[in-house]
Fold each of these.
Amino acid sequence: MTPRKNDYLYLINLLDDEDENVCAYAMRELMDHAEEAASYLAELQECPNELVRRRIHQLQTAILLRERRKRFAEYLNSRRFDPIAALIQSHLLWYDNDSVVVLQEAWRKFQLDFERSQVKTPAELGAFFREQGFTGTSESTLHPEHYCIGVVLDNRTGANSVLSLIAAVLARMADLPASVVRMENDFALLISEAQTAYEERLLLLPGADFKTLPVGAAHTPAELDDRDAVRFATLNLLSAAVNSDSFRYIFTLSSAISGVNEPWRMDFLPYPYSPSEEPGDEKGPEQTHRPR
């Protein structure tokens, strides 16, 4: 048994200390060395001491969420950006008990259904979504599940912005150049009929039963790249977290979007979610509440 292992076991033994400050210190140290401590936490996660067991589970959940926040930020900054993989990571920030494998399988199944449909035109793409029973919802109707790809695929209901991004991915699979566009308070898919001699631009409207409309020469909708579309979906999850006054979700989502993992560096958040660094303030970095 190495001294390093002794250090971790000593900290784990402090998790049931009667002094809450001692317990908080132990949890903070274990979190700060999560990679090294993970195996020891796993060994003792079903120990007979109920309090230690519960706090180990809390630590393991916190470590998992930290990794997901880091992974989401990496996806957003990746050179080879995969919008579906990023939407899956965004989903996991809200539904933290869901499985990556299950979400990936749901997408693969949906992708196979699309491939079997042999879509070749924008009109056929709209017909595919209608046949699949999808319904688009306005961005002003703040339902977090409408921004989570797993629930969207299961319930066939999603925010217009998310459905537009999913449709863009499918359109490109059918060799149809496509991008998400924003029009005032709504979203749609700007898509080109590449098979024709004159490449006509069309709008596919999730909020209007996936109908297509021609884009006038004078009308140029504001295009979003895929990263911004995913950011928008995740920002709406953050709005839902603020609306529910949940610090855990507010911290998780805001740190994932910003790429910042430490609570005392979240000074861009509004009061009471942003810890103050003013001298003498009651909540300095060491006292900051850490989400589970």
Amino acid sequence: MKHARKYDYIYTYRKVKRKGKIDGRGFKWKFWPFVKAEHEVRPSMDQTDYAQFEKELFKVGQQELRTLSEDWEQLDTKLKTNYCVAKSIYNKALKSKEKETDEAIREKESFTRVSKEYSDLGRPAISSTWTLFWLFFFGAAEFPLNSIVFQVIGENFWLTMIMAAGLCFAIPWSAHFFGKAIKQEEKSKSDKILIVITPIIILALLAGIAIVRTVFFEAAQSNFKWLHLDISPTTLAVLFIIINLTIFFVSVLVSYQGSHKKHDLYKSMCRRYKNALKSLKKETTEADIANANYAKAVDTYHAMKTQREGCHNSYTERAKFIIVKLGTYMEVYRGHNIEARKSAGIPLCFKLDLMKLDIPENLLHENLNWDCPDDIQNNEAAHSPNSN
């Protein structure tokens, strides 16, 4: 439009109508003095070429269409870049979505398979958490008795506490390994050794501590009146052994119920189950992120495509409007020119078909190029549609 400013005087219906009358009647009124200014009737009756004013209209139309075409080329440089970047991001997001979805499906199938194997293998009657709790509880429960026993021996306080704590640790945990060994369906050599030597060691340890404790108690009974024990040393020794053996066998029972008959296989299956669950959560999260990115990329891609199509259609419609407007103005010019001649006839040039303007090639819908360069991804960060 800016290149057609010198032709603006013809770009209203009123001015085109007035121009047709003036050219057809052969004069116009001067403002001062108020007289007729004669001139030749335009176009002449025998003129076979298009009227000069029609050529001017046609030239102005061409200029407007050329300017409109150039404006579109300038705008489309940005629109197509945004579209191509969005398309590239969309294609990458689609591939990522398909990849992550496939991986999530595979991980789900793997987890389902491992979960079934884990379920078929069965679980211990007591969970590992409760097994550990009861073992620690039994160890803590026998600590007061063992601390009294080792105090009678006459060692200092901290050594007494360490020895008592050591026994409290040794009995439940030896019972744990013993119970786990006898639970195994297929016992290894080490399991068989544990089953044989564990009770022997525990009995020997308790008997030895009881004997030593009895000797020291008889020798130093008068020095430990603060214990207020009205019981014979032998009875106390037997009571000590019975209590610790009871804790041992109860710990064995807990460990037996808390162990699996195929411990190594069960332990391996637990690791597989946890790893499969972890992988499933990871792949599911990545698939959710990929799907969210894909949905966003789809929205952006279609928005950029719609924006470019909409702008192109707008420029095409403007070009069609210019063409229709110029054709209408030519018809108006001819009609009022003929009317002003007062039945003098119709010039030969008015019998010619109206000059027609063509829509610029780049404004035709079929010529809108959607091909994108292969290296557009190198400029994605700089030309991302979201950054504009």
Amino acid sequence: MDRICAGYIGEMGIPEDKREEFSDRVFQVLHQGGMMQIEAARLRGQEVPLLKPLQYDEEGRLIFCYNYFGDSFREEAGYDRNTCTFQSGDVGFGEFQRVICAVYVLFEFYTDTFGLAELNGRLFDAGFHIGWLNYLFREQYTDRRAIDPWGIADLFHKNDKELDKNLEAFLDEGEVSYSSLARYCYVEKGSKTFLELWNKKNKGFCGLVRKLEEDLEKAVGDQGRDLKETEAAHRKDSWEDVADFLLHSLELDFEERMKLLNEEPYQALAVPFLVLPPEFLVKAVAQAGGKDFWPLWEQWRPRVKWVRLLEDEQSLYCSPYLPVRTADFLRLPPYQIIKVGGKVLGEDYFRTTDDDRVFYWREDGDVVFSEEMKNQFLEWKKEYERIRNDRCPSHSGDMWIQKLVNLLTRAERSRQRIYAFQEMFYEFLGNSGREEYQAAILLLECLLNRSCKKGIGFGKKNIDWESLSRKVTFYPDRILLKRYLALLANKALRNKVLGF
């Protein structure tokens, strides 16, 4: 399967006064999105992989390669709170990819410069990601990227990226900045196409562009001999002379620019050079000399005294995305499909729900269990109480530790990627002589036996887990094992269901 890599086009620099909040939010995105670490415990000659919720290491880094909801291992990714930078490799698809992309999208709202999250160098619809960020942090984020097509084109060129060929399809013209779209069309589509498209929208603006182009051609061509009777107009200026003079005017404040352009021989150009956006002026000057726009724009961009009111335009063209609950975000958006191995996989393929968020349940939290899951809790409670009433076998604590290790080893080998949580594991080791913990271990054994009896085996060596259908990996009895281990790790919920 081809690699799918996420990233960020632009500078990741986070202002000093926003770094602490940004780092807290990156942590919440990764935590709520199911990113975890796997650490192995070595006990009685056996190695038991254990789930460990993300924690910063001694160097201030979050390092991970596993997503709990997708049961997926990917290339290592990490966030460094000292530098506020984030890196990832192959992110695959499903939950791992969406959570990684959400972190990159978060950068868009914190950096001082314009930047974009991307997948394999292509833009993606970030509406679902932004809605989730709004939900997590009670924000009013908009898709400000989508109102600035010129900013996108400029960013791609500045970072030596090939402009996304699907940019126009990605943008919804009814929700973009008028002036930004005009810049994009004029620079990327050329004068002829721009004037054909824009003449119906704003004849006056197009007339000004035509006049600019015509007067520039006269200023640098032989036609300039007939333009004026003055001696200055009769000389044939080189393109370099015209470009240097006119582009120098862009370095000046408005009043200084107006004074300069009122001098001969460029009075005819004064109005467009005072009114049109600088991108239009540089493009027209480059066009008149048969030059490429982008090298000239790179040269003059830092010197232009022009403030684009994009933030003001944002309130006119964008509305905040409605909040998207975590469980809804973790499911594949209903409008999205993914092609894997020649098969098109839709929403049913990705089945993450609140029922899979047992570990994340809090008394005042947002996890809402289905009636089916509530009934499952009742069944576990009845079975757990039956086991306790029948009295557990009177083994020593060491025997129960060995039994737990054996069960977890068997679960991981036969069901694959079924792990206990680290804190829960060591809690059970420390309480192995108590009946309530012993009964919970026996219930785990019952669930594992049922899963192995009804389910499909995963015992083959070198199995390609990522290629397996979720009809296999999300087999109900296997998922019940996973949810039960999450219940044992969630002390508050465990107390409500099992009473200890």
Amino acid sequence: MHFLRFYPSMVFVSAMLALTPAAIAFAEEPTKVDPGIMDQEDYDSSVPYAENLPSEWALAIRVALQNFPMPRSLGDIYQFQAEYLLPFQKAGVFGLGAHIGILNLQVSDRLPVDARNLGAGIHFRYLLRFMKNQLFVPTAALELTMLRIRGVDNQGWLTTTNAGVSLGVMLSLGFFDQKEATEGYLSSGLKRSYLTLEMKPQKISDPTIEIDGTSYFMGLRLEF
């Protein structure tokens, strides 16, 4: 029975990882190398070419599982994110984005677990990226999410908002295969890719919806 509960999560993660090559190969034409970049004073030929360029936008998926990695962890949550990365990136990287996902979690003793529960909102993210080809990138995000929860006996919908901060770290995949990272940029415009780990305390208390715990997210982030 435990396996059946985790099976949808496993399918979701496996499908997203399998679709990653297709997701990053959408460019109609190969990206061209700009010779002017190589002439810049801070150009570093020892790192993947794209590491010398700022990212402009990002896509990410993340998943939080019930009771994983520790008891009472909140899940199951499946979320998609899109971010615009602000052009001023001198003291780290700032991003403004939106997110949407499903929340198949217990929100109250009186309400059933329902995969039709939805959450959508906006977030402001900071990435402590201070060097090229950085292996670990700490991140923090201020998130505002509107929740749409199925009512008792499937009667109507309940809505509430949830504001909170998520903290985490991202692991650069390009760090381990720099040649592949450069080829990925030239073929699709993908500048950076990361595995992400985040934690987000969540607390909502109103007459109907009660959430109190921490969600631990793992995911994949692609920057273009």
